[in-house]
Amino acid sequence: MERLLLRLAFLLSVACSPAVQGQEPVFLQLLGLDRVPAPTQLQPVPWVLKKIWQEQTAAAATGASQDTCYIKKLGVRGNVLRVLPDQGFFHYSKNLSQANSCLQKLLYFNLSSVKERGQLTMAQLGLNLGPNTYYNLGPELELGLSLVQETPKRAPFSAKTLVWKSVPRPQGELYFNLLGVAKHWTRTPLRNAGLFLHILIKEDENLGMKLQMEDTCGRLKRSLQAYLLMVSLNPEQCPPISRKRRAAVPVPQAPCKNLCHRHQLFINFRDLGWHKWIIAPKGFMANYCHGDCPFSLTTSLNSSNYAFMQALMHVMDPEIPQALCIPTKLSPISMLYQDNDDNVILRHYENMVVDECGCG
User: Fold this and answer.
1) How far apart are CA 131 and CA 7, in angstroms?
2) Whole-number mean pLDDT of the chain?
3) What one-character-per-residue DSSP string does 252-273 give?
4) Could you tell me how far CA 90 lies from the centroid of its own chain?
5) Which among 59, 63, 62 is positioned nearest to 72, based on CA atoms?
6) If I label 238, which of 56, 72, 106, 290 is the partner at 20 to 30 A Cα–Cα?
7) Which comes out higher in pLDDT, residue 86 or 312?
8) CA torsion 30→38→281→21, rounded to 10°?
9) Which residues partner with 227 through β-bridges?
10) pLDDT digits (tens, 9 = 90+) for 176-186
11) pTM, 2 dp
């Protein structure tokens, strides 16, 4: 990630030059994008991503230690979160008005944007069935969710039942674990034919009013919203912890501006033209390390033992280069952005902000 930081700093310095076009693919590849997104307008941020983003930002502001490869709110490992909206359609049939059938809908989620390497750790279907209120109670519902086996051309669909359950009043939002299904879809995209949702009115002799049933079904059709929340763990950005890093000693105030120390660098995404698809943050204080590492002060500039020996050898043989001023402590950032399919993605990055510098 240090290399990514250097690339971002370089992009900022040449933002107005044609060189930016040659460097953008490097950054886009790290985001799992094949080209620069060009949305006509930024999509609203789904509430679950907004909540996680706010918690991450608040933790970073307090300086609290955080693992950006663990989503505390969801209880899973991962550093890439995306919400895929439902692109399916309602099915209307003459038989729908018979018995207690309320609505039928094909749910479809386009997984073509899931291209980066990584382990899928969570896939959760969210179904919003309307306001969670006790003031307008309707009849109890029966909900069926099935995996469509082939591309649907007409109903009834060839499907395998996944869930069949009663839904108590009030309805509110329901969640279903689809990790196994989503893994199957990502491995074999052509088998992704969607899900079939069937909602029925649970028979109640005390109700017995067709008008109330029609009112309930009408409200469901107007308010029904579905989305698929997916969490991935990128092994390159979240490597396993093999050993404890050497604790960094804070760099003292340098008596000379030429000595190794941290310099401020704010990366503004608007300067790069990326504000059209990066939702938040608008930019971040990346900082950078610069300065000399002379032998006489190497031990006081947060240096490694190797840097000290290198500086010593440089005194004996000037052809041996001096130790370099490099980051010794970095902290993470989170980014909300919109991909080429208008999906909103929250991605966490380690080692993006330089906190301390030293010789190495």
Assistant:
1) 47
2) 75
3) PPPSSTTBSEEE--EEETTTTT
4) 29
5) 59
6) 290
7) 86
8) 50
9) 85, 126
10) 999 999 999 98
11) 0.74
